[in-house]
TrEMBL record, chain A:
Residues 1-141 form the Globin domain. GO terms for biological process: hydrogen peroxide catabolic process. The keyword Oxidoreductase does not apply. The lineage of its organism: Eukaryota, Metazoa, Chordata, Craniata, Vertebrata. It comes from Gymnodraco acuticeps (Antarctic dragonfish). One of its GO terms (molecular function) is heme binding. GO terms for cellular component: blood microparticle; haptoglobin-hemoglobin complex; hemoglobin complex. The gene is zgc:163057. This is Hemoglobin subunit alpha-D. Belongs to the globin family. Keywords: Heme, Iron, Metal-binding, Oxygen transport, Transport.
UniProtKB/TrEMBL annotation, chain B:
The keyword Iron applies. It holds the Pfam family Globin. GO terms for biological process: hydrogen peroxide catabolic process. This is Hemoglobin subunit beta-2-like. Residues 19-163 form the Globin domain. Keywords: Heme, Iron, Metal-binding, Oxygen transport, Transport. PROSITE patterns: GLOBIN (PS01033). InterPro entries: Globin (IPR000971), Globin-like_sf (IPR009050), Globin/Proto (IPR012292), Hemoglobin_b (IPR002337), Hemoglobin_oxygen_transport (IPR050056). One of its GO terms (molecular function) is heme binding.
Length: 141, 163
């Protein structure tokens, strides 16, 4: 459950990160691949080495989707419908992995924002990422 | 490998030994030599109580945990956070026998404190994020992986004596 203050904080953070969407997205993905090697199995068709165009473009997509969703959290189910369909019927990524990427996204944010990634910002962002992941998995079954 | 993994456990007496690469050992020791226990500990525990408010159930005697500012400024939270870091230090000094190092602590958390072991993972994640903020860019994916492996062994050892 997100308060209005938290929603504003989340929008603020993603707005500030949109210019570096590639970098932060790629960083979060690389962390996930290093810490949870099973997640790499979904990327066997791509070059996911550090700096690769695939990794950067994929990281960017993810961050931009997160930023877009944050603009109206109450409408996540509408905003994410195309992504829901893609993940449920085409990608079929086991939803446990959403938690892993969310965690790595939080770590990436912490490394970048340092003291500015306060406990309150962390709590808000964790809640948002959980909500996002839940909506993403909704059409799975 | 016997099919019944439970009996394999009982036969060996303990879990298979955790193996650490040189990189992992060096990384873990390096991190702990660089962080300030009385900064990271309090910050991590406070963060856990804020991000996962249900964990406050174990800290009824700690006084004011009403909001993030109160939690951050609470001296009992700070003291306990530091204690936790010194507890982790024991594992750093005994990387090859973390399980036995934590036998008593595991019993304490189970039988006296009645802490759901799922909470250990929540606190571990908060420690990771606080250390990440401390080290910034130097907390690379590889460093994170080593640190998380260490915390996973700690968490598992703390949950070992529950029954």
């Amino acid at each position: 459950m997100l308060s209005n203050k938290e929603k504003m904080l989340i929008v603020e953070i993603w707005e500030s990160l949109t210019p570096v969407a590639e970098e932060i997205g790629a960083d979060a993905l690389l962390r996930m691949f290093a810490c949870f090697p099973g997640s790499k199995t979904y990327f066997s068709h791509l070059d996911i080495s550090r700096g690769s165009p695939h990794l950067l473009s994929h990281g960017k997509k993810i961050v931009l989707a997160l930023a877009e969703g944050s603009k109206d959290i109450s409408q996540l189910i509408v905003t994410l419908t195309p992504l829901q369909i893609m993940h449920a019927y085409q990608l079929r990524i086991d939803p446990t992995n959403f938690k892993l990427l969310s965690h790595c996204m939080l770590v990436a944010l912490s490394c970048l924002m340092r003291d500015d990634f306060t406990a309150v910002a962390h709590a808000a962002m964790d809640k948002y990422l959980s909500a996002f992941a839940a909506v993403l998995a909704e059409k799975y079954r | 490998m016997p099919e019944n993994s439970v009996s394999a456990d009982l036969q060996t007496g303990s879990d298979k030994m955790v193996e650490w690469t040189d990189f992992e050992r060096d990384t873990i020791k390096d991190i702990f030599s660089r962080i300030e226990y009385d900064v990271v500990g309090p910050a991590a525990l406070a963060r856990c109580l804020v991000v996962y408010p249900w964990t406050q159930r174990y800290f009824g005697g700690f006084g004011n945990l009403y909001n993030a500012a109160a939690i951050k400024g609470n001296p009992m939270v700070s003291k306990h956070g530091t204690t936790i870091m010194h507890g982790l230090d024991r594992a750093v000094k005994n990387l090859d026998d973390i399980e036995n190092t934590y036998t008593e602590l595991s019993v304490l958390h189970s039988e006296k404190l009645h802490v759901d072991p799922d909470n250990f993972k929540l606190l571990a994640d908060c420690v990771t994020i606080v250390v990440a903020a401390q080290l910034g860019k130097e907390f690379t994916g590889e460093v994170q992986a080593a640190f998380q492996k260490f915390l996973a062994v700690v968490v598992s050892s703390l949950g070992r004596q529950y029954h």
